[in-house]
Amino acid sequence: MTLADKAVVFIAVLAAGLSFYFAWQPSAPGTLLEIYQDNTLYERHSLNEPATLNVPGKLGDSVIEIDQGRARFQSSPCTSKFCVHAGWMQQAGDVIACLPNGVHIQIHGGQGRFDAIAF
Amino acid sequence: MNRLKILFSTFIFVFLLSACQQEPEPEEHKSTMMVFGTLVTITLWDVEEDKANEAISAVADDLSFMHEAWHPWRPGPMGRMNQLLGMAGEFTGNISVIPLIEKSRTLSEQSQGLFNPALGKLVKLWGFHQEDMFASFPPPQEEIDKLLAANPQISDIRIDDVRISNDNPAVRLDLGAIAKGEAVERSIDYLRSIGIDHAMVNAGGDLKAIGRHGDRPWHIGVRHPRKQCQEENQAECLIARLDVRDNEAVFTSGDYERYFEDNDKRYHHILDPRTGYPADQTTSVTVIHHDGATADAAATALFIAGPEQWPQIARNMGIEHVMLIDKQGRAHLTPSMAERIELQDDDIETVIQELP
């Protein structure tokens, strides 16, 4: 084998190792954000592209921020602001809603750790 | 030639391994929507796409219908009943609410009145009947006293087939502590009736499951009542994890869900019928039971009962699996719950409590 052959084998083995590592992550972060308005899909947005989106609802605009693979309600016109206080989410299956405004966001792609959270 | 072989086989090897990354065909159908005044997530396993979509939208429609029918103050069957309960005389009740009222009566008696669905006026006084805008300070003490003195009980309502009369003008029904449980129960019944064997219906953190999630049981986490943390650190805000078995409902009542603050004091939505104020000895209760409505009412009743009285109420209501977190942060567990639940924090003080 020449040096080039060895380099190819080395790179291939490294790539194989890395693919194992990425394939067996226990809970992959999600890749896609779905934004719903009154239970109807309003927009799909990649979590990899930073964005600030205004989503009109019953009371006014909810502002959704996407940054570094995460998403959150930056602001919302509801009184209690539960959605804003929920902070950033990034796991597949995570959902945050502003019920009074009829807007909710959900992360898709990958596998969540839990089928549900009881609360 | 030899070189080509090496090159070729290493690339094949890498390619095969990277195939591990490919997502398998989706056997899970999961849909989240806002219905029943909360977020409802329906998860189906091993159901064909078309059937799954149809089933999910049928459940959503049913849930919207139940929400309207059972809402105490909207102009639906329950709202109408509440109007008529305030007038003297007999009337015909709507059959979409009578079975639930009868079930509520049984559970209210078993809970020794701690689950009291006849206190609709008290819930309204505190503003917790609204979805978002609660009151901003507690109601006047004399109004609470007046209402409690009238002692509204669901047993004041007499039901003769569909004819209804009421002995106590203070009675207004608010089935908020049982309606979600009944709705989840009926949703699961429907899914089973159309041949779905593996499903979970989760209505705002209260859920029932049938079957399994493929080759494993349904995994759930139970939220910690005091840890404030963001969604991204989900695992750290959990107090426990649990596998849900076939035909089991898991219901939790917590003081962190619906509340308002006044003068740095938090007033939450679980009202003690003995004081007219939010029950203040407990921070959360989680129960497992096969029937969603029973689990729902029991979670509320045990929360109100508090760390001293809960074992007796649990026994009366036929609840074997209970976890109660008291305001000091101790976890009170029945022996059967202790076997099932995996606490996430080793430092948490646990009290194993046999039922009487």
UniProtKB/TrEMBL annotation, chain A:
One Pfam match: NusG_II
Name recorded for this polypeptide: Uncharacterized protein
Bilayer-spanning residue ranges: 7-24
Superkingdom, natural source: Bacteria
Keywords (A to Z) from UniProt: Membrane, Transmembrane, Transmembrane helix
Classification via InterPro entries: NusG_2_sf
Naturally occurring in which organism (per UniProt): Thiohalophilus thiocyanatoxydans
Automatic annotation (TrEMBL), chain B:
Required cofactor(s): Mg(2+); Mn(2+)
Signal peptide: 1-21
Catalytic reaction list: L-threonyl-[protein] + FAD = FMN-L-threonyl-[protein] + AMP + H(+)
GO molecular function annotation: metal ion binding; transferase activity
GO cellular component term, pick one: plasma membrane
The protein's Enzyme Commission number: 2.7.1.180
Record's cofactor remark: Magnesium. Can also use manganese.
Similarity remark: Belongs to the ApbE family.
Functional note: Flavin transferase that catalyzes the transfer of the FMN moiety of FAD and its covalent binding to the hydroxyl group of a threonine residue in a target flavoprotein.
Protein name per the record: FAD:protein FMN transferase
Organism: Thiohalophilus thiocyanatoxydans
